[in-house]
From TrEMBL:
It comes from Hymenobacter perfusus. Residues 466-598 form the VIT domain. It comes from the Bacteria. The chain crosses the membrane at residues 9-32, 44-63, 75-93, 113-132, 144-165, 177-198, 218-239, 259-277, 284-304, 310-332, 352-373. This is MSEP-CTERM sorting domain-containing protein. PROSITE patterns: VIT. InterPro entries: MSEP-CTERM (IPR027550), VIT (IPR013694). Keywords: Membrane, Transmembrane, Transmembrane helix. NCBIfam families: MSEP-CTERM.
Length: 958
């Protein structure tokens, strides 16, 4: 324990902690400073200056004492307790100055006071421990009962004051302001004295345990090391009076795992074991105790921010003493390790003992880190397979490990706290998990259910298709009232530059604040180059930002109580824009607009209005326009019609549902197929089969598909979306003179994992977007790959051949050596000249329209090469920023003030540093999301202090 007097601890517990505190607070201040009034800025400045002065003084004192090889003094401990307690109290009293109520909380989800209390408490705890050591030197006689009495004096005095008939008498004698100040001061001083004498009692008992005998020492350790920790866990988890809000909710967090109980018992047993005469067994005991030191220290950290509440907890809650167990248990634990070191020092070198000690201390953190890294690897494998698969490799995931990982993700996402603010979170460990496994992002409930359905075969509770975020609004919301356009032909880049301005207004003028939303289909070769929204008498051009970050900021602004002015323009899908403007208030109309770059004149449909952009070009685009580098080409309708017309041979490709739910039904597939298509089709060498469960397993050409079906081990859900994508991608990357007609054989299409459409892969099915489903009743229905894939379009008559009348397509560049096949229509298309070759986002183009062609060509390439999405996502987004061209991965966001823009930049950096498949929030919900520490220390500390003080003040006479 005396080692705590070494000044090196000040560098770790004070200097390092305050540097981290300063960085976190500066990050918050840099976002909101433009919204703060002059008085708040001044408060931030002088409080930060005071903290810096105190921290520098402590640093100078620590270096001075270290250089002189002296320990920290009693005066330092007393001054630290006074000054840092005053800083915390000052910060709490100035909470509305630091963070005024009109500053949106989503910009600063973690209150600055949370950081202040969290990072100053280690300094206070160290000063308290050091003061106990300084004032309790070994070799002197101390009265345990006297110190126990002094420790209980503070809570007993407060209890007596509360129980008096008049309540606290301060209000009847002194002015309100002075009475309140004395109340707070007395509470702080009483708490410090209470903790000081409590720790001192434990320290004295440890110093004099020989005097009280081994029996007393053993009973003392059993009480502190086993009984009280187990009792505390049970009280926290509600085992005596029912759980708090759920089976995994607790007052201070979710400690319901059997590991917490098992480690508590093991820790207590190791502390109770006597020193062995065998040096190796004693060394093993030292290692075990050092391993469990992490467990003791963890709970010390968990309860450290609540130490200011300990006096109130003891007064108001009978079990408040359980909060103090980690504080005194850490003292006992460190004393036992020090005693082990002293006994083993004569028989082992200091280097060996240090290695054993440090190795033990690092064991639990390393085991937890390794476990979380394993969870990260498992989760990322599943996300890659589901959202960015490499179709050239075979996946084989550990489904039980994935199930465990998803269960932990759901537990850490749960904010239903019930009886305490932590809910099912595990303090600090949940934060560490979210940082290491989820990159400080989240996994939406939709994606969790999706992964569970694919790999575990768990069907979602609600099988109905959720409404899209940007669905057309009902007719009572703001609508389009006027559209004006202006188009100029840019001869330099040989493309049109068009400005489209929209005026929107409320149909119901009594509506306070409505949101205007609309969808707009863009033809191929048309890109968005700018966006603006008029607000407060000025025109605010949109910021081109990462799409998820922009959508998150827009959603947070909509959730504010104040009326703000955001506008969002983003791709709903690869060819459909979504425009959102908020608010449209009363009779006032809003003006917004965007710039389009297009090669040929186009006609758009805006809320039922046809808008013509550009005039008939003097020189029509009759030949392919190849972007710089030759990887991407723009094929106009006229140029497409000049390509050779060819007819490819269709063949059946049967996708057989072999999910875990279909284990007992797959025997009927052969009979059903033969009845519908005939034995000759099934025996045809061109017919292909793929077994589809969580994975797509192709049956080799010429193999006995029925034998493969019978011997296949069904796994997981029916991942039809992945099987269709794999079939289409492989056909597109290796163009052939034949094309597949997909036929899905299943008893329950509703149980299939199938996206709404596969429109981004439409270049892979130029003949037709049809696929077919053969159900349990032998009915064959047609479905569309372009939209509403799960809904049947029509039923195919029995005996109808799907191979007849294959439509012709256009071969590019020649019919002899085609690289791609295009639909035989007059619509323009973007063509990848080398679809199987690598393509990187680049801006080597002669104009903005050419740059847009490169970016959108890369986006199409990425749809057929999803395995490259993760590695090239950030360069692609940066290229979009640099060019100012909107892509499906970016969004234009018009914001009102610099604070919103700073928050957008901060969120964007967080999103771009994480995995692409992870989410910022729940996707379709517009609820604000939290950041680390949101639901932890600050909430309970501030709420409990406020409630307790208000309770005590209410007891004063009126």
């Amino acid at each position: 324990m005396r080692n705590l007097l070494h000044p090196k601890w000040l560098l770790l517990l004070n200097t390092t902690a305050i540097v981290v505190l300063a960085l976190l607070c500066y990050g918050q201040f840099s976002v909101i400073h433009s919204l703060l009034p002059a008085g708040s800025v001044s408060t931030w400045s002088w409080l930060g200056g005071a903290l810096a002065a105190v921290a520098l003084s402590t640093l100078g004192y620590a270096l001075r004492q270290w250089r002189r090889q002296r320990e920290v003094s009693t005066l330092y401990c007393l001054l630290t307790l006074v000054v840092y307690s005053a800083l915390i109290c000052t910060g709490v009293s100035l909470d509305t100055e630091l963070l005024p109520r009109d500053v949106p909380r989503w910009m600063v989800p973690t209150d600055p006071l949370v950081y202040l209390i969290t990072f100053l408490m280690p300094t206070l705890a160290h000063a308290g421990y050091a003061l106990v050591v300084r004032l309790t030197p070994a070799g002197k006689d101390y009265s345990v009962l006297t110190n126990v009495g002094l420790a209980l004096a503070a809570p007993l005095s407060w209890l007596v004051l509360i129980m008096l008939p008049g309540g606290l008498l301060l209000g009847s004698i002194l002015p309100d302001w002075l009475g309140s100040s004395l109340l707070v001061t007395g509470l702080v001083v009483g708490t410090v004295m209470f903790l000081f004498y409590l720790v001192r009692v434990v320290y004295i008992l440890e110093l004099r345990r020989g005097e009280y005998g081994r029996e007393f020492s053993l009973l003392w350790k059993i009480l502190l090391g086993i009984v009280l920790p187990l009792l505390g866990l049970m009280v926290n988890n509600g085992l005596f009076w029912g759980s708090f809000g759920g089976t995994e909710a607790g007052i201070f967090g979710n400690f319901s795992s059997p590991w917490f109980y098992g480690l508590a018992v093991l820790n207590g047993v190791l502390l109770c074991l006597p020193a062995s005469l065998n040096r190796w067994l004693h060394l093993l005991l030292l290692f075990g105790r050092s391993v469990l030191l992490g467990y003791t220290f963890y709970f010390f950290l968990v309860f450290l921010p609540f130490l200011p509440l300990s006096l109130l907890a003891v007064i108001l809650i009978g079990t408040g003493f359980l909060m103090l167990t980690p504080l005194v248990l850490l003292l006992v634990h460190v004393r036992e390790l020090a005693a082990d070191w002293q006994r083993l020092r004569p028989v082992f070198s200091g280097r060996v003992l240090l290695l054993v000690l440090l190795g033990g201390i690092g064991t639990l953190p390393l085991l937890i880190t390794a476990h979380y890294l394993s969870d990260r690897h498992t989760l990322h494998q599943a996300l890659d397979y589901r959202y960015a698969p490499d179709y050239s490799r075979r996946y084989d995931l550990d489904e039980p490990a994935l199930a465990r990982t998803l269960a932990v993700v759901k537990q850490h996402k749960d904010r239903s706290s019930g009886g305490g603010p932590f809910g099912s979170h595990v303090p600090y460990l949940s934060l560490y998990f979210n940082w290491l496994v989820l990159d400080n992002l989240t996994l939406s409930d939709t994606k969790i259910a999706d992964l569970e359905q694919v790999f575990l075969g768990v069907l979602p509770e609600d099988t109905e298709t959720a409404a899209r975020t940007f669905d057309l609004p009902p007719p009572t919301v703001p609508t389009l009232t006027d559209v004006t356009t202006k188009s100029i032909y840019d001869a330099r880049q040989q493309a049109w530059v068009s400005e489209v301005e929209l005026r929107v207004a409320n149909t119901d003028t009594t509506q306070r604040a409505g949101e205007y939303t609309t969808l707009l289909n863009l033809p191929a070769g048309c890109w968005v180059g700018d966006y603006y929204l008029d607000m407060n008498g000025r025109r605010e051009h949109g910021i081109l930002a990462e799409k998820k970050a922009a959508a998150w900021v827009y959603a947070q602004i909509l959730n504010e109580t104040q009326v703000r002015d955001p506008g969002l323009l983003a791709y709903q899908n690869n060819h459909q824009l979504s425009l959102r403007v908020y608010p449209v208030v009363g009779r006032a109309s809003r003006v917004t607009g965007f710039q389009l770059l297009h090669k040929e004149p186009v006609t758009l449909l805006l809320d039922g209005r046809k808008v013509r952009l550009g005039t008939d070009a003097k020189v029509p685009v009759t030949v392919p326009v190849v972007a710089n580098g030759g990887e991407v080409a723009y094929m106009s309708g006229i140029a497409k019609q000049r390509l050779p017309l060819v007819q490819r041979r269709p063949y059946y490709h049967f996708l057989l549902d072999v999910s875990a739910r279909q284990q007992q039904h797959k025997q009927a597939y052969a009979r059903r197929l033969e009845q519908q298509f005939g034995a000759s089709v099934l025996a045809d060498t061109t017919t292909r089969f793929t077994l589809v469960d969580a994975y797509a397993t192709p049956v080799a050409a010429g193999a006995n598909w029925q034998q493969e079906l019978a011997s296949h081990e069904n796994t997981g859900g029916f991942y039809l979306d992945g099987a269709l994508r794999q079939l289409l991608v492989q056909g597109f990357l290796r163009p052939r003179a034949a094309y597949p007609i997909p036929v899905v054989v299943t008893d329950d299409l509703a149980a299939a994992v199938l996206e709404t459409d596969l429109a981004e892969l439409r270049a892979a099915y130029p003949e037709s977007d049809r696929f077919y489903v053969l159900d349990a009743n032998g009915h064959l229905t047609a479905h569309s790959l372009r939209h509403e894939a799960s809904r049947a379009l029509f039923e195919v008559a029995a005996g109808t051949s799907l191979l007849a009348q294959a439509p012709p397509v256009r071969a590019w560049p020649t019919a002899v050596r085609p690289r791609a096949y295009l639909a035989d229509d007059t619509l323009a298309e973007i063509v990848l000249t080398q679809p199987a070759a690598a393509l990187r986002p680049t801006l080597a183009a002669s104009g903005r329209w050419q740059t847009g062609l490169l970016l959108h060509g890369y986006q199409q390439w990425q749809a057929f090469h999803p395995e490259a999405a993760e590695a090239q996502r950030v360069p692609f987004v940066r290229a979009s920023f640099q060019a100012g061209i909107l892509t499906p991965f970016t969004a234009y966001l018009a914001l009102e003030n610099p604070a919103q823009k700073a928050a957008l930049k901060q969120k964007q950096e967080q999103v771009l540093s994480g995995k692409a498949a992870l989410d910022v929030d729940e996707g379709e919900s517009n609820q604000p999301t939290a950041v680390p520490l949101d639901d932890y220390i600050g909430f309970l500390v501030l709420a409990a202090v406020g409630l307790a003080l208000r309770y005590l003040l209410r007891l004063q006479p009126a």
